[in-house]
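We now fix the convention by which a protein and its fold are recorded. The integers have meaning only within a learned vocabulary of local backbone shapes. A complete example follows; check for yourself that the lines match position by position.
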Amino acid sequence: MKTRNVYALFLISLLSLVLLGCGATTTRASTGEYIDDTVITTKVKAAIFNHESLKVNEISVETFKGEVQLGGFVSSAAQIPIAMRLAREVNGVIAVKNNMQVK
């Protein structure tokens, strides 16, 4: 009987640790948020790639908890608001931060 209780307590403890490991913190996204951010990043990159005046290989896109950060280089200052608008139009984007530079 004692052995059964020890195993039950061990399994409950293990399950608790696994569930806590999937939770979000202020510096780390949960598993679901990470997947959502990956989808958002892919959609933003596709939107930029499909625009005729933007070069996707020179613009980096990072997403954390729905906030998109655009970095890299653009050919002219007029391209920055275009890239930001395209990012804002993607479903699930909460905010867009600009770290792009004109080269």
